[in-house]
Amino acid sequence: MTDKVFIKTILQKGKEAKEKVKFAFSNICLEQLNWKPAPESWSIAQCLEHLIISDSSYFSDLEKITEGIYKMNFWEKHSPFSGVCGRILNDQLQEQVRKKMTAPKKLRPATSEMKIELIERYHKNLDSFLDYISNCKDIDIDKTIITSPIIRIVTYSLRDAIHFLIQHEHRHINQGIRVKNNDNFPKKSIH
Description:
- The chain is mainly alpha-helical.
- It has a single domain (4-180), classed as Four Helix Bundle (Hemerythrin (Met), subunit A).
- It is built from eight helices and two strands, in the order αααααααββα.
- Strands 1-2 form a two-stranded antiparallel ribbon.
- β1 (145-147) and β2 form a beta hairpin.
- It starts with a helix and ends in an 11-residue tail after the last helix.
């Protein structure tokens, strides 16, 4: 069914994510953006890059869905696991981390240093993502089933995908904020 209230709620959560990033990271320098609390930990840049990669991996399907040309394949139409997969991902990708997870290789950020323009790129990517979501207000988000861009046998409803992706957004923004709040986070240098 269409659910304009759900879409409106998700768009509000998306707007909150954007504001959170602006507030937390708009005044950081390049060194701070790329600083990692430990070699195996992610920097703020890597958290944002991961979100860009993750969100944009859904853009092709979202574009087809919002243009009215999306056609579910046989597996998407008949998979008995779509509801279960959606519930599992909604549970695993909670905004507040209950269990640390390893990102799939396809969604991992670069390990090299990133440029400060990454923050602007993140905002543009989030705007595109939210535009797609906004354009789903007249789509049956429960009956539209999509396939994971990572594991091609995993399917879930568009509602579940939108929900866990917004939770995932906040999860990694919060991770970046924890990096910034680390006692060893570098002080901004004045040049």
